[in-house]
Every structure is written in C-alpha cells, then in structure tokens.
Amino acid sequence: xxxxxxxxxxxxxxxxxxxxxxxxxxxxxxxxxxxxxxxxxxxxxxxxxxxxxxxxxxxxxxxxxxxxxxxxxxxxxxxxxxxxxxxxxxxxxxxxxxxxxxxxxxxxxxxxxxxxxxxxxxxxxxxxxxxxxxxxxxxxxxxxxxxxxxxxxxxxxxxxxxxxxxxxxxxxxxxxxxxxxxxxxxxxxxxxxxxxxxxxxxxxxxxxxxxxxxxxxxxxxxx
Length: 223
Hints:
Elements: H1 17-33, H2 40-55, H3 64-82, E1 92-97, H4 103-115, E2 120-125, H5 134-142, H6 157-162, E3 165-169, E4 182-185, H7 196-216
Parallel strand pairs: 1-2, 1-3, 3-4
Helix pairs in contact: 1-2, 1-3, 2-3, 4-7, 5-7
C-alpha cells in the first residue's frame, strides 16, 4: 500500500485553492508511481521545490502545477538512479545550454524521437528562459518533430549525477562538472534572435550529432 501525501503540505498562502488542489492531485499520482521507492515526504519535497523553480517566471500560471509535476517526476527518476533504486541500465543523456530554449531542446527532440524508449533524454539550462524559441519550434516541426510540450527548466544536482553523458552547448563554466561523468561539448551557433532560415542549419547539425551519439551508445534508432 502506498504512503499518501498530506493535504496540509499543500495549504500554502502563495497558492490559490485551485493550485493547491492541482498540486495535491499531482502528489497523489507521484506517490502512487514511486510507491516502494520513495515515501510521500520525499515526493512532497520534490514537488514543492519543483513548483518553486517555475513560480517566479512562468508566463502561464495555470500550467504551473503540471510543469511542477513533470519536473518532479524527472528529478525523482534521477534520484532513483543515483541511489541505486533504478537498475534498468537505460542510458541517460542530459543536454544543457544557457536558456534551455533552443539548442538543447532541439537535441532532446531528436534524441527522444530517434531513441524512443531505448534511452532517456533530459535537457536543462543554466539560465532558463520563459519559453522555447519559436524559430526552433518551427524548424523542428519542419523535421516532423513537435517540441511544443517541452518547457525551459534548470538542471539539478540529481539530474546531472544520474546522466551517463552530459552534452554542453555554450553554457561554459555554468554547466555542472562531476568527476567520472562523460562530457561532450558541442560548439553550435545560438538560435536566439535568429529566424527560421538561420535556425535550420543549426537544427541539421544537431540532428547529425544526436544520431552519431546514439550510434556511439549502441542505441538502435527508429527508421
């Protein structure tokens, strides 16, 4: 039987009644999903801190609980890997850039599309933006990949520690450095402020590099 989250934990003065309900509902889903791995207290803590990561900059407050739930789920999966509670061995690749709005999102889009469930891809930024670059969204749509469900987010310690490969794209010293991790630094133009025509060559180079990385990791790709 799973440990249930407490409603008291979600009675925060900075949350509307609807947000409190949405977060509590998210906590129940996560508690069920991670039953036997993490207790409700851990789930509550990660959900609250994930919410706080977005609360000060999200442009659509209505979606804050959903963003928090998705980010908390990713962080809990990472924590399970770090603590040895996930022994699946599925490769994890973390793509990092400055704003997590262009390069790293396109890389994640290609990685997820090509690897499907045979590898796990995450992305993050040292200074996350407010939204994904519209030109990057359009360029990826032309390649048959929809990245509109993604959102700029930071990287966290457990996420970086869980990754088998960390790919950096222009975040320099702000990117995390952990001994023993495999790092790849991809020198790519920043699509920020560029139109779709200028983003297409960046997109194509990212696809080439993602395919080469998956091949190196021995991860079969979809046709």
